[in-house]
Design a protein that fits this description.
The structure is a single chain. With about 70 residues, this protein is of the alpha+beta class. It has a single domain, classed as Alpha-Beta Plaits. It is built from two helices and four strands. It has a four-stranded antiparallel beta sheet with strand order 2-3-1-4, covered by helices on one side. A hairpin with a 4-residue loop joins β2 and β3. The longest helix has 14 residues. The radius of gyration is 10 Å and the shape is globular. The relative contact order is 0.32. The structure holds copper (II) ion (CU).
Amino acid sequence: MQFSVEDMRCEHCAHAITGAVREADPLASVAVDVGAKCVTVDSRMPPDEIAKAVVDAGYTPVIRHA
Ligand SMILES: [Cu+2]
Protein backbone atom coordinates (compact mmCIF):
# COMPACT_ATOMS: atom_id res chain seq x y z
CA MET A 1 0.00 0.00 0.00
CA GLN A 2 1.16 3.53 -0.62
CA PHE A 3 0.28 6.84 1.01
CA SER A 4 0.86 10.45 0.16
CA VAL A 5 1.80 12.39 3.29
CA GLU A 6 1.96 16.04 2.31
CA ASP A 7 2.89 17.21 5.82
CA MET A 8 5.98 15.00 5.94
CA ARG A 9 8.83 17.48 5.59
CA CYS A 10 12.08 16.00 6.92
CA GLU A 11 13.90 12.96 8.21
CA HIS A 12 12.36 13.48 11.62
CA CYS A 13 8.90 13.10 10.12
CA ALA A 14 10.04 10.05 8.18
CA HIS A 15 11.38 8.50 11.36
CA ALA A 16 8.20 9.28 13.32
CA ILE A 17 5.98 7.80 10.61
CA THR A 18 8.14 4.70 10.26
CA GLY A 19 8.02 4.19 14.02
CA ALA A 20 4.25 4.63 14.13
CA VAL A 21 3.70 2.07 11.38
CA ARG A 22 6.07 -0.41 13.01
CA GLU A 23 4.28 0.06 16.31
CA ALA A 24 0.99 -0.83 14.61
CA ASP A 25 2.58 -3.77 12.78
CA PRO A 26 6.05 -4.85 13.91
CA LEU A 27 6.35 -7.00 10.78
CA ALA A 28 5.64 -4.17 8.36
CA SER A 29 8.30 -3.01 5.98
CA VAL A 30 8.24 0.74 5.50
CA ALA A 31 9.92 2.79 2.78
CA VAL A 32 9.75 6.57 3.00
CA ASP A 33 10.59 9.06 0.26
CA VAL A 34 10.57 12.47 1.94
CA GLY A 35 11.14 14.35 -1.34
CA ALA A 36 8.18 12.65 -2.98
CA LYS A 37 6.15 12.82 0.27
CA CYS A 38 5.44 9.16 -0.25
CA VAL A 39 5.26 6.28 2.23
CA THR A 40 5.18 2.71 0.97
CA VAL A 41 4.15 0.03 3.45
CA ASP A 42 4.18 -3.72 3.07
CA SER A 43 1.84 -5.06 5.75
CA ARG A 44 -0.96 -7.54 6.21
CA MET A 45 -2.91 -4.96 8.18
CA PRO A 46 -5.73 -3.07 6.46
CA PRO A 47 -4.63 0.23 4.90
CA ASP A 48 -7.05 2.20 7.06
CA GLU A 49 -5.40 0.86 10.23
CA ILE A 50 -1.96 1.78 8.95
CA ALA A 51 -3.33 5.20 8.00
CA LYS A 52 -4.77 5.60 11.49
CA ALA A 53 -1.35 4.92 13.04
CA VAL A 54 0.13 7.65 10.85
CA VAL A 55 -2.68 10.05 11.81
CA ASP A 56 -2.10 9.27 15.49
CA ALA A 57 1.56 10.22 14.98
CA GLY A 58 0.36 13.65 13.82
CA TYR A 59 0.46 13.34 10.04
CA THR A 60 -2.10 13.31 7.24
CA PRO A 61 -1.84 10.25 5.01
CA VAL A 62 -3.88 9.87 1.86
CA ILE A 63 -4.07 6.37 0.41
CA ARG A 64 -2.74 6.19 -3.16
CA HIS A 65 -2.89 2.47 -3.66
CA ALA A 66 -4.28 -0.12 -1.28
CU1 LIG B 1 9.90 16.65 9.89
